[in-house]
Amino acid sequence: MEVGFQLSYLAVLGIVAIQPKVYEWIEFENPLLDKIWAISSVSIAAQITTFPLGLHYFHQFPNYFLLSNLLVIPISTIIIYLGVSLLLLAKVPIVVGFIAMGFTWSIWLLNTSVQWIEKLPFALLEGISISVFETWLIYALIISVFIYFQVRKYKVLLFAFFTAVIILSMQLIEQHQQQFQKKMIIYNVPKTSVIDFISAKQNVLLTDTKFAKNESRLLFHVKHNWWDLGIDNNKIVVSDFQNEFLKINKNAIQFYDKKMIIVNGSSNVFECNDYSFSPLEIDVLLISNNPKTSIKKLLMLYKPKQIVFDSSCTTYFISKWKDECNFLQQSYYSIQDSGALEITI
User: Fold this and answer.
1) Segment (H or E) for 93
2) Where are the domains of the chain?
3) What SS3 string covers 185-250?
4) Residue 279's closest CA among 256, 261, 292?
5) 41 with 15: CB under 8 angstroms?
6) Which of 125, 129, 224, 255 could form a disulfide with 61 if both were Cys (CB 3.0 to 4.6 A apart)?
7) In sequence order, what are the beta bridge partners of 30?
């Protein structure tokens, strides 16, 4: 089930099964052009069998895959030969020094060329989201198209057409559903509190300044989910905020009709309910950053439908609070134990 395993074997399958047929599309008399086309046909074949998985897992398509493989394939071939030579001639000091130098420079050239292509304008088509079922449908479409060119049967072409219609229809239905989505998501980000408020195709992400500025962590933990949900209007906040569907005031949050209180290591547990003689009824009581308090004390102030421990809390504190919740028969959810929590409104 490893992604690398799936991509590697599918790429080899494409090269073995599809590349010879792609190579036959064009004939060149010039040996250099023929070699370039041979490398390009390998790239096309491998891309045909792997791009659906790339869309599903990484939500992106490499627009310059032909250009990158024109560089990567020859350089990686040189690296393989130099690497084997390095092992075989390891005991010949004079020769191995030159081979090691060539090996080092080849790896540098490979990495530099890939980084250069990556920085070109429009290098990646990002934000694409397809389900597992849609991934299978795309593979069914690819297989049926290739079978059609082999057997030229009308039924096979008709199957390919209807498969394409189903894929497009599913995308249209998904787009329609996204226009009406209302979700609150508490992400599973180690040692960090990250809460997403999603309304239609826009969102407000509440987190700390450090995480908000870390593009790689945002991509790994959050952005792929934004693409899955069709979010195209993002806003990241670290403090008080208000718009038409969300109000954040210190540790009190209202998202449509849902009320949340955040109790963290720096907050005063009395801050949001210091004038009431009865517990404040809320939907979610979020505990983060290891506040030094007990569940019993919190329940004297708030009456939550659910208590949530996010991933900024340590295992020690979460274990202690869970025992308290079980004793008091209070519903709870641990992000560390069960993963991200999604609340649909």
Assistant:
1) helix 93-118
2) 3-133, 134-178, 187-344
3) EECCECCECCEEEEECCEEEEECCHHHHCCHHHHHHHHHHHHHHCCCCEEEEECCCEECCCEEEEC
4) 261
5) no
6) 125
7) none
Asked if 231 contacts 201 with a C-beta cutoff of 8 angstroms, the reply is yes
| CA dihedral of 22, 62, 115, 57, whole degrees rounded to 10 | -120
d(CA 140, CA 283): 45
**pLDDT confidence of residue 245:** 94
Domain 187-344 matching CATH 3.60.15.10: the answer reads yes
Q: How many CA atoms lie within 13 A of 314 on its CB side?
A: 6
Strands (E), 30-128: 60-62, 124-126
**Rounded distance between C-alpha atoms, residue 261 and residue 307, angstroms:** 10
DSSP class of residue 279 equals P
| Lookup: tokens for 160 | 């390919």
Q: Is there a contact between 61 and 123 (Cβ–Cβ < 8 Å)?
A: no
In this prediction, the residues of the chain whose per-residue pLDDT falls under 70 are: 266-277
Length of the chain: 345
- Tokens standing for residue 171: 């995308």
Give me the pLDDT at residue 78, please.
Answer: 95
Q: What angle do CA 66, 69, 72 make, to 5 degrees?
A: 160
Partners of 254 in the β-ladder: 247, 259
pLDDT at 1: 82
Residue 230, φ and ψ in degrees, nearest 5: 75, 25
State which H helix or E strand residue 12 sits in. helix 3-17
**Cβ(10)–Cβ(2) under 8 Å?**
no
Sheet with 341-344, side-by-side order of all strands: 233-237, 202-206, 195-199, 182-186, 341-344
Q: What is the pLDDT of residue 266?
A: 62
Distances (CA, A) of 302 to 194, 221, 265: 22, 30, 17
Residue-level pLDDT at 93: 84
pLDDT tens digits, residue range 294-303? 999 999 999 9
